């Protein structure tokens, strides 16, 4: 009864697909994302966005309801390009505001292994916009090179949290 009684979740999972995410890090992110999708209810809405120096929706809210489709779409992710977190945040927030449920839980999960290049101010401005819209940003730093100061600042402005992920169990 507890799970079915919780408010619907409206989520954007924003994945860093820059060159440094090649190999095991991308596999970890795919596995973690699929684990999140498997725990959702039919009333939940999730968009998955991938970013490097540009961002795109790789799994729409409709596609995320079918795990096999989501797994196939995530499998097509290729690591390339630089890291511009602001690109991913902006598209993630756009997706969230299109699906916002006033009685639901709205949040963005950012998975990144790096530092953003030249758009720290944009990231903080987007975090302020998210806070105004009552959207929490939860950040997952992967590996050891991510910018803990920036991620901490974005999360704290929105009531979100930051975790460090050195390794991740792979879900198949």
Q: Outline, from the CA principal axes?
A: globular
The number of helical segments is: 7
Cα(first) to Cα(last) distance is 28 Å
Spans of at least 5 consecutive residues with low confidence: 168-172
Sheet with most strands: 6 strands, mixed
Widest β-sheet, arrangement of strands:
3-2-1-4-5-6
Features:
alpha/beta; 6-stranded mixed sheet; 7 helices
Question: Can you give a write-up of this model?
Answer:
It contains seven helices and six strands. It has 172 residues and is an alpha/beta fold. Strands 3-2-1-4-5-6 form a six-stranded mixed beta sheet, sandwiched between helices. Helix 6 links the parallel strand 4 and strand 5. Helix 2 runs antiparallel to helix 4 and helix 6 packs parallel to helix 7 (148-158). The longest helix has 15 residues, at 24-38. The radius of gyration is 15 Å and the shape is globular.
What's this model, at a glance?
With 172 residues, the chain is an alpha/beta fold.
Protein topology:
Layout (H helix, E strand, L loop, with lengths): L1 H4 L3 E8 L7 H15 L6 E7 L3 E5 L1 H4 L2 H9 L9 H15 L5 E8 L7 H13 L3 E7 L5 H11 L3 E4 L7
Parallel strand pairs: 1-2, 1-4, 4-5, 5-6
Antiparallel strand pairs: 2-3
Helix pairs in contact: 2-4, 5-6, 6-7
């Amino acid at each position: 009864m507890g799970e079915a009684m919780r408010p619907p979740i409206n989520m954007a999972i924003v994945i860093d697909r820059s060159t440094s995410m090649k190999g095991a890090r991308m596999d970890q992110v795919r596995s973690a994302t699929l684990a999140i999708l498997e725990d959702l209810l039919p009333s939940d809405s999730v968009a998955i966005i991938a970013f490097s120096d540009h961002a795109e929706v790789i799994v729409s809210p409709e596609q995320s309801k079918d795990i096999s489709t989501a797994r196939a779409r995530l499998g097509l992710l290729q690591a390339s390009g630089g890291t511009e977190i602001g690109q991913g945040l902006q598209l993630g927030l756009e997706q969230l505001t299109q699906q916002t449920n006033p009685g639901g839980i709205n949040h963005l999960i950012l998975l990144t292994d790096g530092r953003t290049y030249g758009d720290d101010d944009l990231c903080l401005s987007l975090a302020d916009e998210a806070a105004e819209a009552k959207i929490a940003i939860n950040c997952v730093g992967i590996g050891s090179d991510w910018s803990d100061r920036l991620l901490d600042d974005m999360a704290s402005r929105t009531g979100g949290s930051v975790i460090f992920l050195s390794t991740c169990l792979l879900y198949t």
